[in-house]
Model the fold of this input.
Amino acid sequence: MVKGDTPLNKQIKRRTALIGVGIVILAGVGLGSAVATSSANQQQGKSAPTKVAEQKGVEFKTNQKGQTYGSITVVGQQEVEPDLISALATNGKLGYVNNAELKAASGHPSQFKSPADAIKWQDANGKRAVSIPVYEEDGVTKVGQFVLKPSPDEEPK
Done:
């Protein structure tokens, strides 16, 4: 064991890696969502929303509530996240999860003021699946659920 690599640190590293993988999956689903949405809009004769917001050099479409929506984008080595992130619901429908709801449900590091807070959250929530709504681009209309599951080594025995 490397100095400072305690079982707790290993567990936090695994959890962080799992969240990272989930974000990459969401970003990939977002690309498919963008293609599917664009194709569906063209087939139905709908025009894509023209309102666009720029965030750290990335342009995101905005809904009527002013929320940005789309896929997580990497600029340099920094992720740029819209308010609503492309996701695939458990029922197979494409939509968006609310970024704040995703962070709260996944135990994102930005949710904690200290390592002790993170450990408390992980002890209470880290071993259970959490479901959050998937919305249409309006950020209100629910189209399904997105489930965050613990990694296999964190599941209750």
Q: What stands out?
A: The chain has a mean pLDDT of 74.
